[in-house]
Design goal:
Elements: H1 3-17, E1 22-29, E2 32-42, E3 47-48, E4 55-56, H2 61-74, H3 96-99, H4 104-108, H5 128-136, H6 154-168, H7 172-184, E5 188-189, H8 192-195, E6 204-205, E7 214-215, E8 233-234, H9 236-247, H10 261-266, E9 272-273, E10 283-284, E11 289-292, E12 296-303, E13 308-314, E14 319-325, H11 330-346, E15 371-374, E16 378-385, E17 388-395, E18 409-415, E19 418-422, E20 432-437, E21 447-449, E22 453-455
Antiparallel strand pairs: 1-2, 1-14, 2-3, 4-8, 5-8, 6-7, 9-10, 10-11, 11-12, 12-13, 13-14, 15-16, 16-17, 17-18, 18-19, 19-20, 20-21, 21-22
Helix pairs in contact: 1-11, 2-6, 2-7, 5-6
Domain Beta-lactamase-related: 7-329
InterPro entries: AmpC-like, Beta-lactam-related, Beta-lactam/transpept-like
Keywords: Hydrolase
Length: 458
């Protein structure tokens, strides 16, 4: 069955069964893009989700920012292994001596070693990103030497966006529009003022697992984080068209070269391993996440306030799947939609998420894990209660009021230092994998790693 026929017959049903507010999907296969949409773009306003609805793509934006940076590399304006201070002399973290060694490559593969989650408001003027670098970055903790460990880093992509601004002499948003969106003929919105001119989705959240979805308190994060994924919105078909650019080694459909073939391929070359949390993401290239499944797959996900985006490419098959959602059981929808489309059109089987080997393994040294860990976004407290480990998560001030309080989760041992954090009160919860990394010199883990290396603070 072709992609369009399957989407027409199944997508709306799967969106409803997954209790997702609204969603749109686009499949690039055999050179054609099939699309579908279902549900609501805005439950409060009663606006239908359609294939021309703009959804936020969140951190998938990082691939767009990487593309802008690699264009600078193509022109000889940026050296991936040059210090960031060569382009931004004002850049520094809480440890200027260490941060002086951070390179452009460290930013692109999330190994810069500084705390990367600060969503401070620096205004919506054209200098928002410039102000973030000057005012916020000096307060960021340098928790690791650069190049040592993968730790997902939003602020690194803000710095990359500022490099684009400095070398292009314009704003990041304008560079994205003129260098990528317009040559590809894509409709995008880079802020709420642009989004309101289109049919635009809003995010939805549930305050408790059994509550009804409600419109989120804010449409987007602050403009200071735009190059990392604060507000960029497009259609599912637009995201698939962007994916086609990378599958076609940097060529637009009309033959315009937007990115060199060498740079497009280099973005897909592994540069660092991700500490084992699952079989679904194993390495990082430049921007791209690399999935070592039964066939090489690249991609990226994005999460904003009540919206989630998914993008997967199978380069050898010329296949891409983009799905944009705005609240609900999006993980369940992803499993159903991508499980079918990746298998039928790319011959790829998505491996299962980390799961428990029957009964949870006994925890022989709970003292290695108990204690407090903290990043810019959250504080994590791990406690031992009658031989069982529990995780309490407290949002930092930047996230106050933007979503429900994170649930208390039990840490169930999978193997080694790998755990699954399970919310027993949510029947749809499949658990969050996390791994404890390193040693603090006292036999305790130095980091709680949940895609970010959260350092121990006790």
């Amino acid at each position: 069955m072709g992609a369009q026929a399957w989407l027409d017959g199944n997508f709306a049903r799967l969106v409803a069964e997954s209790r997702v507010a609204g969603a749109a999907v686009a499949v690039l296969a055999d050179g054609e893009i099939a699309t579908a949409a279902a549900g609501s773009a805005n439950l409060r306003a009663g606006i239908e989700a359609t294939t021309d609805t703009l959804f936020q793509i969140g951190s998938v934006t990082k691939i767009w920012t990487t593309t802008l940076v690699m264009r600078l590399v193509d022109e000889g304006l940026v050296d991936l292994d040059a210090p960031v201070t060569d382009y931004l002399p004002e850049f520094r973290t809480s440890d200027p001596e260490v941060s002086a060694a951070v390179t452009v490559r460290h930013l692109l593969n999330h190994t810069a070693g500084f705390e990367g989650d600060s969503f401070k408001d620096t205004g919506r003027n054209p200098d928002a990103i410039e102000r973030f670098v000057a005012e916020i970055m000096p307060k960021s903790r340098q928790t690791l030497p650069p190049g040592v460990l993968f730790s997902y880093n939003n602020a690194g992509f803000v710095l990359l966006g500022r490099i684009v601004e400095v070398l292009r002499g314009t704003t990041w948003a304008r560079a994205l529009r003129t260098e990528i969106a317009e040559p590809l003929g894509l409709t995008v919105a880079t802020d709420a003022g642009e989004a309101i001119l289109h049919r635009a989705a809003v995010g939805h959240i549930r305050q408790t697992p059994d509550a009804e979805l409600e419109v989120a308190a804010a449409w987007a994060l602050h403009a200071s984080n735009d190059p990392a994924g604060a507000s960029l919105a497009t259609t599912a078909a637009g995201l698939a068209a962007f994916a086609r650019l990378h599958l076609d080694e940097g060529l637009a459909p009309d033959g315009t070269r937007i990115l060199s073939a060498e740079s497009a391929r280099l973005m897909r070359v592994a540069t660092v391993d991700i500490p084992r949390r699952s079989a679904r993401q194993v390495r990082i290239g430049l921007g791209w996440h690399l999935f070592d499944w039964n066939e090489p797959v690249i991609g990226h996900d994005g999460n904003t306030i009540g919206q989630a985006a998914f993008l997967r490419l199978i380069p050898a098959e010329g296949v891409a799947v983009a799905m944009l959602t705005n609240g609900g059981n999006v993980a369940g929808l992803f499993a159903e939609v991508y499980g079918h489309l990746m298998r039928e059109h790319g011959g790829v089987e998505i491996p299962p998420a980390v799961d428990l080997p029957g009964e949870p393994a006994p925890i022989e040294r709970p003292e290695r894990y108990t204690g407090s860990y903290e990043s810019g976004l959250f504080r994590f407290d791990v406690s031992d209660v009658d031989g069982r480990l529990w995780l309490e998560t407290t949002p930092g001030p930047d996230l106050a009021g933007l979503g429900p309080k994170p649930p208390r989760r039990e840490l169930l041992l999978v193997e080694g230092d790998l755990f699954k954090a399970l919310d027993h009160d949510d029947p749809e919860d499949t658990g969050l994998p996390l791994v404890f990394v390193g040693d603090d010199g006292r036999g305790r883990a130095a980091y709680l790693h949940n895609h970010r290396a959260n350092p121990r603070i006790d």
